């Protein structure tokens, strides 16, 4: 895979050594709303996922990369999901794990690298993301990278006993 290097971070493929990092993220209930997770994941399931995680995006319709600092710290994850080769589009999701690593530009840099990779190497025409209307940080991140708000899905997600609206954003490669 092409190495995706930025100024402060780089994106790399998942490795077996990422087991505890992925386990911590997937079992952090505070981010379940973002990832539409409903139940915890076992180390066993995550280990199996990592063992099969090197399959091609064209086969599994997903690409998950680790946002990594140059001192080799795993900072977060960035995903392409619902990869649709026929229509040349994919969804994007991003998470910087620790609060102390947020608002330092890592997410912005990771998103820039993924956008360039998606349009240049995968030949995609568009990327999209779904963001809760309460997630002002993510809305700002995606807007700064050129994503446009194209719709509001009313009462789209049921979270902690109430319905929440969700925005749909798109970035079209012209």
UniProtKB/TrEMBL annotation:
GO terms for molecular function: acyltransferase activity, transferring groups other than amino-acyl groups. The keyword Transferase applies. Keywords: Transferase. InterPro entries: Acyl_CoA_acyltransferase (IPR016181), GNAT_dom (IPR000182). Pfam families: Acetyltransf_3. Its EC number is 2.-.-.-. The keyword Transferase applies. Residues 9-170 form the N-acetyltransferase domain. SUPFAM superfamilies: Acyl-CoA N-acyltransferases (Nat). This is GNAT family protein.
């Amino acid at each position: 895979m092409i190495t995706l290097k930025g100024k402060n971070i780089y994106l790399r493929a998942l490795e077996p050594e990422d087991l505890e990092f992925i386990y911590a993220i997937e079992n952090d209930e505070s981010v379940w709303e973002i990832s539409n997770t409903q139940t915890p994941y076992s180390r066993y399931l995550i280990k199996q996922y990592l063992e099969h995680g090197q399959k091609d995006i064209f086969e599994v319709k997903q690409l998950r990369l680790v946002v990594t600092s140059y001192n080799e710290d795993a900072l977060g994850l960035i995903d392409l999901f619902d990869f649709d080769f026929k229509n040349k589009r994919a969804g994007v999701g991003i998470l910087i794990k620790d609060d102390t690593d947020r608002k330092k530009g890592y997410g912005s840099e990771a998103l820039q690298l993924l956008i360039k990779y998606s349009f240049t190497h995968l030949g995609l025409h568009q990327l999209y993301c779904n963001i809760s209307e309460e997630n002002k940080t993510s809305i700002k991140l995606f807007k700064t990278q050129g994503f446009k708000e194209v719709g509001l899905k009313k009462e789209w997600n049921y979270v902690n006993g109430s319905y929440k609206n969700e925005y749909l954003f798109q970035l079209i490669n012209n």
